[in-house]
Amino acid sequence: MTRMPRENKTALLAIPALVYFLLFFFVPIFMLLTLAFNPKELGNITIRPVLTLENFKLFFSYPVYRQSLVNSLWLASVATVICLFIGYPVAYTIARTTSKRIQAFLVILVFCSMQIDLTVRIFGYLTILGDNGLINGSLTRVGVLARPLPLMYNAFGVIVGLVNISLPFLILPLIGIIESVSPDFLNVARLLGCSRWKGFLKVELPLSLPGIITGVLFAFAISMSSYLIPVLLGGWGRAVLPVYIYQQISNQGLWQRGAAFAIVLLLTNLIVVFALIRYYSRSYTKRVLAA
Amino acid sequence: MNKRNYYREGYPRGFRLVVVITSAFLIAPALVVVLTSFNSAPYLSFPMKGFSVHWIIEYLRSALFTQSFTLSLLLAAAASTGALLLGIPASIALVRVRFPGRDLLQALLVAPLMLPGAVIGLALYTYYVNIGVLMRSFPGLLLGHIIIAMPFVVITVVGALSSFNIDIENAARILGANAIQAFFKATLPNIYPSIMVGGFLAFIYSFGQFSISLYLSTPDLDPLPVALYSTLRFAHDPRVAAAGSVAIVLVVSSILIVNRFTDLDKWFAGFRF
User: Fold this and answer.
1) What structural domains and CATH numbers belong to chain B?
2) Does residue A5 sit at the B interface (CB-CB below 8 Å)?
């Protein structure tokens, strides 16, 4: 009991950050929410005490906007699944390799690709995937292709870009979890006659599930909200929700609509996040109960 | 457990191939940018027409570098400092004390990483307009960057503090140090590498941040990513590649430095939602 006062004092350390986040994160998001319920008014961004659902109704009544949400969802889902399939082996190698050099190389690679300017990486992909780019350029010159493959300004280009930006955020949470799974579990499975793959699928993969969930959440949320990649690698045909948010605001000056669209994006993200966490904790409890 | 014995049989079949392909996939864009920036042709082309540093010099002379690069650098330095000053004390509270709403606070501090940058940028802009100050100004931009830099500091420092053996600090207390002395003399030297890592990551993330800046910048206050985007959207400008090369060199060298200080692979290990 004598420790209580000291602990209380330590808790005070959180106050500056808490106040800062309330002031410059929570309140702004809340304001955005309110703005989304104001009737649209050209060029006006101040919040008025008139509430309406018309912005949301508009969103769901126009096929273009609905389609952009669907586009966002499926592009982000495909990108996330690909991330998982190519990211897991990388995280696994980083966690399990005995070679310090391979480990350092992969870790540095993952961090660099997380931190290099997005615009710069996209410029790289434009150069690689473009009609006169690295792939098409060399293939047509050699004579394999008569005309360039459509690698960009379509779903393929967008997914390549999305996988690139979200991959590091999927790999990093996985590493620690895989490291924390004792190799002994796998050894036992192997002794009991499992193949290497079966041992991995039945023992190591389920135990690393918390890391997979965290990583998938990051990857999905990041893919869903990317604006730059669909615009630069996808062109306007692949319009996704973030593109329309910006379009409503910068081209049309309708802040209320932009805010409403942003809220739709935010809610979709939150729903997916909560659904995944619910699903995970339920399946986890079930497994614990079964054991 | 003897790691070497166990891994003699290697990874599940096919893993190695996937790792090689993924590495190539991650390296490719950066490599191409660096090569393009040394291309002497005035347009985007592959293979290269010839080696030249023309575009690099052109970039270093342009407003892209003299204004946007400097602005981004200043912004990132200020944002990571701000995030450290707010994030370190908060992380201490998060790790050391069980107070009501602790998990919620931790989620709040990491949330900017998972929210669309566009939503945060738009929300902040709305906020600034409604309170009547800060819009389209450097402080306004900075406040937003501190928000998005915070998750990196919190994830890193919370992780480091959770794995730090508190007995070391308690020993200092027993030997007569007060709470503040004990923290600065016993704990801080031990978690210092992680703080550096958190600060570095926050710095680079803020430096490359696009979405927030898009809503908060002005034509005469364009951070580098926004300036590059404006250039890139309407034309293939080789100066973008040159700017990219400079940024890549900056990032790779700082990651190499950070990697010397600490095990980067453990970065996320101590952190749980």
Assistant:
1) 54-266 (1.10.3720.10)
2) no
